[in-house]
What we know:
elongated; alpha+beta; single chain; Alpha-Beta Plaits; Aminopeptidase; 19 strands; seven-stranded mixed sheet; 12 helices; four-stranded antiparallel sheet
Amino acid sequence: MSTKQKHSTPDFAKFIDAEELAGLALKMANTNSPMGHEQPLADVVHSWLSENHLNSRLQPILADRANVVAVLKGSGQGHSLLFNSHLDSEISGPEWEWGMNAPDINRIGAWREGERLFGHTVLNDRGLMATTMITLKALRDSGLPLAGDAIFTGVAGETGAAPVDEFQGLTYEGKGIGSRHLIAHGVRADYALVAETTDFGISWIACGACYFKVSVPGINQYTPRSQRPDDIARHPNAIVKMAHVIQAIEKWAREYEARNTTETVCGRIVPKVNIGAVRGGVVYRPNRTSTHCSIYVDVRILPGADPLTVERELSAVVAAAGVGAKVETYLARTGAVGQNVEPLADIVKRCCQAVTGHEPTPKAPQVVVSMWRDNNVFNEAGIPSLTFGPPRRREEDTSRLYFQLEDLVNMANIYAQVAYEICSQPKR
């Protein structure tokens, strides 16, 4: 597809109502629908699209997990563009409240102060999902004919999760389960734009992610009878032995991050390592040494990196700690570099310039290129995909993050212009 503008791209501003967008974003953000249980929000999204006479359907995954798909049909002679955003935010319930010592962010939701929208759920990712819904409505209301389809998708399970231990089944699947379900069941397009915050940067590169369970054995001894030998390998308490494993992993993580930092055309990739959870012993009975201790480690990997290579490297690190630690992989998602994305990227740059007066930033922020996003799924499937969105702004006095409503309105206009340019051009 040629990236040269052969017609004047219309301004969709008059078809975008800021109050409607803000109201929709807050309604969605205040729908209790955490990761693994996205059906309540899917129902809200499906109902709004249907009430606004946009061709919408639910795509069930489980009894309480679903995607939403809406299609603005073109004549069938042009390129198609798919907008993708995710329904899920964070986990919910006792695991979150106990493990994170924080209130349930899915229930607190989001709120408005003047022209600012606050709250985790609106920032990730329901504010931009509302924006793409308004985009589809603006395209329809403009009455402009399209040669190709403009497609909205709201998907389950983008955020990071994976079945492990007693937490089994598809309820705990994340990192792209919804988008993979879309593609596997025929929802495809010539291009895909993943609507997430990027500080007005563009990226078609994203890291993969591996989750590892690292376990150490111990022996059950009553506190008065317990021993503390000089040789750590003979220590009865798995928790104490795990402390040595954690030190080894932390040392390795620094070296791993430095060794794998990579400059790309989309920005700097810094694949990081995090020890995110620990389990061992009985909290209300600490008078016994623990017979087992496990930690759960998130390792980000460069696009194209082999998860097996990372598993072997981590296994060598924990083995060297000398306490009998073992490594088990329970999630392996590879990263991807999008191919043939330049036509879409060029149009995004041009439309951003037209609406805001400036092109996107030359490179996306380091954190954007270094994380997982669902553009990985589309790029792996051969659908050229990038992620592009506004910033999460920060208050200087409180450090609270928020969306500026003007940014979301401008983004709806940009998205609509991008869709019009792509979907109005005939295939060659």
